[in-house]
Amino acid sequence: MQRSGQVFSRIHVDDLATVLRASIARRRPGAVYNVCDDAPASPADVIAHAAGLLGLPAPPLVPFETAELSPMARSFYADNKRVSNALIKQELGVRLRYPSYRDGLPAILAGENAGS
How far apart (Å, rounded) are the C-alpha atoms in residues 1 and 26? Predict the structure, then answer.
């Protein structure tokens, strides 16, 4: 699906665990952290990259306006999610192992292949 200018932030599960450990170690009750990687990207870019890693062509893009989505999915994709992770780096001292989907997806694929 494609919607012009739309991006979302993501996080690899290993980096999520790192942030959680850091926030527990440096407790600040009530603190709110944006837990995401350094590279907000469009869903189409992420899917195309994943397809390339699998040696597959990227699926055709469907315009948002004509996509067959549930009301909940339409509401989710109507939004645009670009957030900053500066606080997890500054306050918690987190260094992301997978700072973008370009780093995280190959690691996920390697883990899948190692398990098979």
Answer: 40
